[in-house]
Amino acid sequence: MYENVLRVKYVNFKNGFLYLSPKHSYLKTGVCIKLIYKEKRYYFSATILNIVDDDCVGINSLYAKALGINENDFVNILQIEQLPIVRSVNIQPLTISDYEVLELLAENVQSHLLDQIRVINAGQEIVIWIGSNISITVFINEVQPLNPGLLDFLTEVVIKTPTGLIKKNSKSKENFKDEMKFLEHFKEHLKNKRVEFTIPKELINIFDVDLVYRLVPLSELPILESKLTICQPFKVYVLKNGPLQELFHSDTNRRFYTMYLLQNSYNSKEISIELCFLDDLVNDESLNLLNNCFSNVYVDISIINFFHCELGTRIILKQLKNPFEVSEIEVHHGKNIESKDVLQELKLFLALSDSEPQVLNANFPINIGKNICCCLKFPPNFNSSCVLDGNNLRNCSYSFCFEDIKPLENVLKDTEEQNFFQSLACVEIVFKNILACIWKNDSFQSENVLICGKTGMGKSSILKHTIRILNKYPYFVYTQIVQCKAIKGKTVDSLHKIFTDIFSKLILCQPSILIVDDLQVLCENCEGEDTPNTVNFNRVSEMLQSLLNSISKENGISIVASTDSVAKLNRHIYKSRGNHLFKNIVSIDNLTKADRVALLKYFFEKSPTKDLDYSSLANKSDGFVIQDIKDFYEKALFESFKEFPIEEKPLIEQNHCDIALKKTCSLSLQNVKFHSAGDKSFEDIGGLSEVKNILTQSFLWPVKYSSIFQNAPIRLQTGLLLYGPPGTGKTLLAGAAAKQCGLRLISVKGPELLSKYIGASEQAVRDVFEKAQSAKPCILFFDEFDSLAPRRGHDNTGVTDRVVNQLLTQLDGVESLTGVCVLAATSRPDLLDPALLRPGRLDRQMMCPMPDKDERQDILRILSRRLELAPDADLAQIAIKTEGYSGADLQSLLYTAHISSLKIVNNEEIIADKSIISQNILLDALSKTRPSLIKSEREKYNRIYERFQGGSTEEDIKGLKVTLA
C-alpha cells in the first residue's frame, strides 16, 4: 500500500483530481487517495501528470483554497482500498447565489460532474465547474450507503437549499414570521421592477446579506460636471430608491464592501469599495430613465478592466466588517517621474473626495492625474486594502519605489464609432421599431424581433447599430451576437452546446439580448423535399425553437434575428398559424432617392471627384441596396485607376460612373432573368398612334420627369390593359414601350404561373411581383391575361379564382407598386374578372384595332425599310388590296415576297447583294396569303369589344367555362 509525504503544487486543470508524477505510474489511474493535512482528512481520485515533479502532488488552486490547503505545504497521502459505489449523495451550496446557479444549470452539472470528481466524502467541500468561467462550491452533507464512496452514472444527487443565513435572534417565531412578510413584497419586486420598497430597519441586523449587482461603466452616465471631481475609482454607485438602501446605510461601516465576481466566488481577484448613492451625481431627468435599473451598480471603468469582464457581469458585494487602517503608504511608480511630483498629485487625488473615510486598494494601477499611473501598498502588514479618514491622511507617511506600472487594458471596446448608415431613413425606422418592441414603459421587455430584408439591405449594420445603442445609457443591456454563417455545418449537439453556453452568459448578465444574424442559414425551409439536409434543418430548427422559447420566457432575454425572408425560415421557427417565436416582424424598406444620394456622397467623398451629378446617379441606381451602391463606387474607382494608373488617389469623373453603372448588377437582380425588349421602339411600329401616346404618358413621363410625378397629389395610373384581335401588335408594344422608356421588361405568359398544387399558383404570382419590385423601374407584362385571370366562379378547379384574389391583392394592396408598371394583353377582355378592371388596378383599357388603309400603308412602309423595293412597287395599292389584314399578316406578306425574290435570283444565277422586290412579286405574294381572321371572326371580335366597352353582363358570358385542363 502506497504512502508518502509530498509538497502541494497548484495546477490549472478544472477538476477535483489529484495529480501525481510519472514516478508513481505503477499506481492505477483513478486510484483512491486519502490526503491528510493539519489533522484533516480529504479523499480524492488520483491520476498521473507529466508536468508534476517527483516530490509534488498537483491539485487545482481553487479546490485547494476551498479546502484550506496552501501551495508548497506538505501533505501526507495514503492509498486506500477500492471504495463502494455511492447510491445517493446530498449536497448543499454555500450561498443562495450558488444555489440559484446550480438549480438553473442542473442539467449541465449532471452531464459533466463525473468528468470533474469521482471520490466524495461526507463533510468535505468540493468545487463544481460549470462552463469555462463559472464554478460553485458545495458541501457534502450525506453519502449513502457507505462513506466515502465513488460516484457512478446511477448515483442520485440531491441538492439542498442553503441554511444558516439567518442569525439567531431573541424574537419569537411568530413575531419573526410577521417581519418576514416583506419577502413576499420582494418577490413582487423581482417580477415587476417598478415596485419600490425598503427592508424594515428591525431586520437589518438579522441578515448577513451578500449583495448581487450588474456592473455598468459609470462613464456612460450624464454626470453633472460639478460632481466629476468626487468620482474616485473605488467609489461605486447605486440608486437611492433601490430595495436594499437601508441595509447598507444604517451605519457608517456598511458603506464599505468587498467586491468579487459571481462566476467564481473564490477568484483571487477582489477589491474593497465604498458604496454611494447615484442620485448625487446625475440630474432628476436622468434618474427617471434609470429608475427601473435597481440591479445595476455603476463603477469606474478601471474596475471593469481590473476584473477583465463585460457589461452586465454579476458581482457580489460582501460587507467589509473590519476595515484596515494604515500609517504608511508605499507608492510604486515609473522611473521617468519624480517622486515629489507623484506625491503632490497623489495627495491632491486623495483630497478630492468629499466624504471620509475613503477606501484604497493595494496592487491596483490607478491614474492620479497628469498621465501618472501608480500602485499603492500598505506596509508593514501589506493588507489588500485600507480605509483612510482625515487623521490617517494627514499623519500618513509615504515611501516610493521605482517600478514600471502599466495601465489596465481597456476591456470594453470603444463603441463611439460613428455609423453613417444609421442616418438613413429606412435604417432609422427599423431601429425605432426594434426599440419599441423591447423597451416599453421605460423598462426592458422580453420580446423577440425578426428583421426581414433582402441581401445587401443593411441587416447586419442595423444589428451592430442596435448593439451600440443598447449597450449605452439609459439601457445598459448586455448583448451577444451569433453569426450563423460561421457555425453552419456543425452537428445538432455542437450547436446545442454553443447556444447553451451563450445563454448561460446571457442569463447571468440579464437583461440581455441575443443577436442572431442570418438565421435562415441554420433554419432553412425545405418543405416538400426529402433529403438528409431537410432532416438536419428540421432537427436544428426544432432544437433552437425549444431552447430559445424556454429560456427567453423564463428570463429577461430578448432575441433579435435577421433573415432574408420569413418564407425561408423553417416551420419550427416561424409558423403560418399558432404561437410564434417571433411575434414582432420588422421589414427594411427600399432606399429612397434621398437615401441613395446620401450614400453616393458618403462613398464618393472618400476620393477626389469632378462634376458628379448625384441626383442623376441616384435616378439611375433606383432599386439598388446599400451593398450595390458600395460596389458601384468601387467599380467607378477602378475605372478611374485604369485611366490614371500613376495617381495615388485618381480623380473620379462622370464618365467613370457611367461605365461602372453599366457593369454593376444589383444583388436582387443577379438571379432574375429579364426578357429582351428587342431593338424596336415606337418608331418601328406602324399605326396605333393613340395607344403609343398613352403608353408614353403612362410609362415614359414618370421616369423622365420623376421629380414632378413624385409630388403628385393622387396615385398615378400604373396598370394598363391592351386588348384587340390577334396579330395587332399587343405583345410587340410591350417590348417597344420598355425600350422607348428605358425600363426593364419582365414578361409572363399567363398559363406558366398556374399549377395543380394548392397554393403554388398564388405563390408564383407573389414571386413575380416580388421580382418586379426588385427590378424596378420595370414593366411587368402579362400576355394572354385571360387564361390567368378569368371571371371568378367559372373555374371547375378553383385555381384561377385564388389566382385572381392574389392578383387583386398585389395590384391594389396596402403597399403601392412604386416603380412597377403593370401591362396586360388579351384578345378576350370580356372573360376577365371585372374586379381587375376597376380604378387602382388595370384601370385604363386601350384597344388595338385592325389597321385601316393608312395604317396598313404605314405598317408596310416601316416593315419594308430593310428591303429593296423596285421603283414600280406601290405600297399604297397593296394597302388597299389588304383590307382585313392585321399587322402580323402584312409582315407575313412581305416575308413571302422576299422569299420569292430570292428564288428568282437563284434561278437566273445572278449574284447580287440584295434581292429586289417588284410590284409583281408583291401581287403574287398577296395572292398566296390570306388574312389570319376571316370576316366572320372579325365581326365576332367587334361585337365582343362593343359589349366590353359598353359593359358586359352575366348573361353575355352565360355558358362560358374556364378550366385548368
TrEMBL record:
<dbReference type="InterPro" id="IPR003959">
    <property type="entry name" value="ATPase_AAA_core"/>
</dbReference>
<protein>
    <recommendedName>
        <fullName>Peroxisomal ATPase PEX1</fullName>
    </recommendedName>
</protein>
<keyword id="KW-0813">Transport</keyword>
<comment type="similarity">
    <text>Belongs to the AAA ATPase family.</text>
</comment>
<dbReference type="InterPro" id="IPR029067">
    <property type="entry name" value="CDC48_domain_2-like_sf"/>
</dbReference>
<dbReference type="GO" id="GO:0005829">
    <property type="term" value="C:cytosol"/>
</dbReference>
<dbReference type="InterPro" id="IPR050168">
    <property type="entry name" value="AAA_ATPase_domain"/>
</dbReference>
<keyword id="KW-0378">Hydrolase</keyword>
<keyword id="KW-0067">ATP-binding</keyword>
<keyword id="KW-0472">Membrane</keyword>
<dbReference type="InterPro" id="IPR009010">
    <property type="entry name" value="Asp_de-COase-like_dom_sf"/>
</dbReference>
<dbReference type="GO" id="GO:0005778">
    <property type="term" value="C:peroxisomal membrane"/>
</dbReference>
<keyword id="KW-0547">Nucleotide-binding</keyword>
<dbReference type="InterPro" id="IPR003960">
    <property type="entry name" value="ATPase_AAA_CS"/>
</dbReference>
<dbReference type="Pfam" id="PF09262">
    <property type="entry name" value="PEX-1N"/>
</dbReference>
<feature type="domain" description="AAA+ ATPase">
    <location>
        <begin position="445"/>
        <end position="603"/>
    </location>
</feature>
<dbReference type="InterPro" id="IPR015342">
    <property type="entry name" value="PEX1-N_C-lobe"/>
</dbReference>
<dbReference type="Pfam" id="PF17862">
    <property type="entry name" value="AAA_lid_3"/>
</dbReference>
<dbReference type="GO" id="GO:0005524">
    <property type="term" value="F:ATP binding"/>
</dbReference>
<keyword id="KW-0962">Peroxisome biogenesis</keyword>
<keyword id="KW-0653">Protein transport</keyword>
<dbReference type="GO" id="GO:0016558">
    <property type="term" value="P:protein import into peroxisome matrix"/>
</dbReference>
<dbReference type="InterPro" id="IPR027417">
    <property type="entry name" value="P-loop_NTPase"/>
</dbReference>
<dbReference type="GO" id="GO:0016887">
    <property type="term" value="F:ATP hydrolysis activity"/>
</dbReference>
<dbReference type="InterPro" id="IPR003593">
    <property type="entry name" value="AAA+_ATPase"/>
</dbReference>
<dbReference type="Pfam" id="PF00004">
    <property type="entry name" value="AAA"/>
</dbReference>
<dbReference type="InterPro" id="IPR041569">
    <property type="entry name" value="AAA_lid_3"/>
</dbReference>
<feature type="domain" description="AAA+ ATPase">
    <location>
        <begin position="716"/>
        <end position="852"/>
    </location>
</feature>
